[in-house]
Design goal:
Layout (H helix, E strand, L loop, with lengths): L1 H7 L3 H4 L1 H7 L1 H4 L6 H10 L4 H8 E2 L7 E2 L3 E8 L5 E7 L3 H20 L7 E2 L2 E2 L2 H15 L2 H16 L12 E2 L12 E5 L4 E2 L3 H6 L4 H22 L1 E3 L7 E3 L3 E3 L5 E3 L2 H16 L2 H11 L8 H16 L8 H15 L6 H18 L7 H5 L7
Parallel strand pairs: 7-12
Antiparallel strand pairs: 1-3, 2-3, 3-4, 4-8, 5-6, 9-11, 10-13, 11-12
C-alpha cells in the first residue's frame, strides 16, 4: 500500500493536487519511530551492539532526515575521520510482515487465476496474477536486505562513472552518495550525507535561486539518466519518486533498494521502440516488439501493425478527436484483441513503473515533460 501510494503521489493528473500532496508524505515523511527506538534498532544490527555502534559513529541525530515505509534516515558522523554520514535504519519485523503478506497474496492470486473470466490475462495482456506476485516478491524481498541496496548503489555509481568515446562520464550532471559497504549490513545502510532538495519542493528551489531554465535541464538530465540505465547500463532503479531524485544542483539519486536488470535484447528493443515512436515508424515498431520479446507466439502481426499505424495517425492528426462513437466502440474491440497478443515480462512492468514515477517527478520541474521527447536528444550517446 505504501508503494502504491508513492506511485500515485507522483501523478497529479490522477487524483488532484490535494490528494497528491497528502500522499506525497509516503515518499519520505511516514510517521517515524523515536530517535531512541532507531538507535536501539541500530544497536541490534551490530554484533557488538551499542558498544560497537558508538565505537564507529558519533553525533547521531535523533531527528530523522526522512522516514519511509521500510526505514528512516538519521544524520551522524564517523568517529574515525569526522565525515558526515546518513544512516538508514530498517523498521523492525519486516521479513515477518513480508512472509505473512506474500503468503496471503499468493493465495488470492491463485484464486483469481482460476476464475473462468480471467482468460490468462491481466489488463488485457497475457500474464497471470500468480506470476506478477511471484515477480514482485523476488524484487521486494531484496529491498529489505540493505546489503543488496548497497551493492545496487555501488553498481549504479560505477555505471555512470564510466568514461569512453560512446558513453561519457555523468559526473558533471549526476551523482550518488558514497556507500560505506564495510559498515552496512542487512538492517543498516551507511552512506555519505549529501545536502539536497527534492525536485518537487518549489519553495526550496526558489530559495536556492534555481532558475526555470535550470529546472528544464534537470528534467532533461533525469530523462538522460534513465535512457542510459535502460539502454546502455542494462540496470536501473525502479523507484524514482521525488524522495529519491534530488538536486544539489546536480541530480543526486538515492535509494536503490528496488533495482532491476535487462538483457541486451530487452535494452536494444527499448531503444528501438523509442526511436520508432519518434519516427512514427510502424515496421520498426513491430521489429522492436519482437526484439523485446513482448509478443505471444501466435500474435497476428498484421493486426498489430494495423493498430500501431492507427495509433500513430491519431497521435499526429488533428482529426483524432473527430472519431465517431461507432468507430470508438470498434476501436476498443480491436484494442482488446491486439492487447491479447502481448505478454509482459516482469522487467518491463518495472520499466513502466519507473517511467510513470519519473514522469510525475519531472513534471514538477518541466510541466511539458515527456520521457521520450526529453530523452531523444541523448540517443546519440547510446
Amino acid at each position: 500500500y505504501f508503494k502504491m501510494g508513492q506511485i500515485v503521489s507522483c501523478r497529479k493528473g490522477l487524483l488532484g493536487e490535494e490528494w497528491v500532496n497528502s500522499l506525497a508524505k509516503l515518499q519520505d515523511r511516514v510517521p517515524a519511530r523515536s530517535g531512541q527506538d532507531a538507535l536501539d534498532l541500530a544497536y541490534s544490527a551490530f554484533e557488538g551492539g551499542e558498544e560497537e555502534f558508538h565505537r564507529i559513529f558519533t553525533d547521531f541525530d535523533s531527528s530523522p532526515l526522512a522516514a519511509a515505509s521500510l526505514g528512516q534516515v538519521h544524520r551522524a558522523m564517523l568517529r574515525e575521520n569526522g565525515n558526515e554520514i546518513a544512516i538508514k535504519v530498517q523498521r523492525p519485523n519486516l521479513r515477518l510482515i513480508y512472509d505473512q503478506d506474500f503468503k496471503l497474496l499468493t493465495k488470492v492470486a491463485k484464486l483469481i487465476d482460476k476464475l473462468p473470466s480471467n482468460n490468462k490475462n491481466v489488463g488485457g495482456i497475457e500474464s497471470s496474477w500468480s506470476k506478477i506476485i511471484s515477480d514482485a516478491e523476488m524484487i521486494l524481498y531484496r529491498e529489505i536486505d540493505y546489503r543488496d541496496e548497497a551493492s545496487n548503489a555501488v553498481r549504479f555509481a560505477e555505471n555512470f562513472a564510466r568514461n569512453n568515446e560512446t558513453l561519457p562520464s555523468a559526473a558533471d550532471w549526476l551523482r550518488t552518495p558514497y556507500i560505506y559497504t564495510e559498515l552496512s549490513n542487512e538492517q543498516i545502510l551507511v552512506q555519505e550525507y549529501v545536502p539536497s532538495i527534492k525536485v518537487t519542493d518549489k519553495a526550496k528551489l526558489d530559495a536556492a535561486n534555481v532558475t526555470q531554465e535550470e529546472r528544464f535541464k534537470l528534467a532533461d538530465d533525469l530523462a538522460r539518466a534513465y535512457l542510459r540505465q535502460f539502454c546502455s547500463n542494462l540496470f536501473f532503479s525502479t523507484d524514482p519518486h521525488p524522495g529519491t531524485c534530488i538536486i544539489m544542483p546536480r541530480i543526486v539519486m538515492y535509494d536503490f533498494g528496488q533495482a532491476a536488470t535487462l538483457t541486451q535484447n530487452q535494452a536494444d528493443g527499448i531503444l528501438e521502440i523509442i526511436e520508432a515512436i519518434i519516427d512514427t515508424d510502424v515496421d520498426r515498431s513491430i521489429d522492436a516488439f519482437l526484439m523485446m520479446g513482448v509478443l505471444v507466439d501466435d500474435a497476428d502481426l498484421n493486426q498489430i501493425r494495423t493498430k500501431v499505424a492507427e495509433n500513430y495517425r491519431k497521435a499526429t492528426s488533428s482529426e483524432a478527436s473527430n472519431v465517431t462513437t461507432t468507430n470508438n466502440t470498434e476501436s476498443k474491440g480491436s484494442d482488446a484483441q491486439v492487447m491479447s497478443y502481448f505478454t509482459l515480462p516482469a522487467e518491463y512492468a518495472f520499466v513502466a513503473r519507473a517511467i510513470t514515477q519519473l514522469d510525475g517527478s519531472c513534471k514538477s520541474l518541466d510541466p511539458e515533460f515527456d520521457f521520450i521527447s526529453n530523452a531523444a536528444p541523448f540517443i546519440v550517446e547510446i
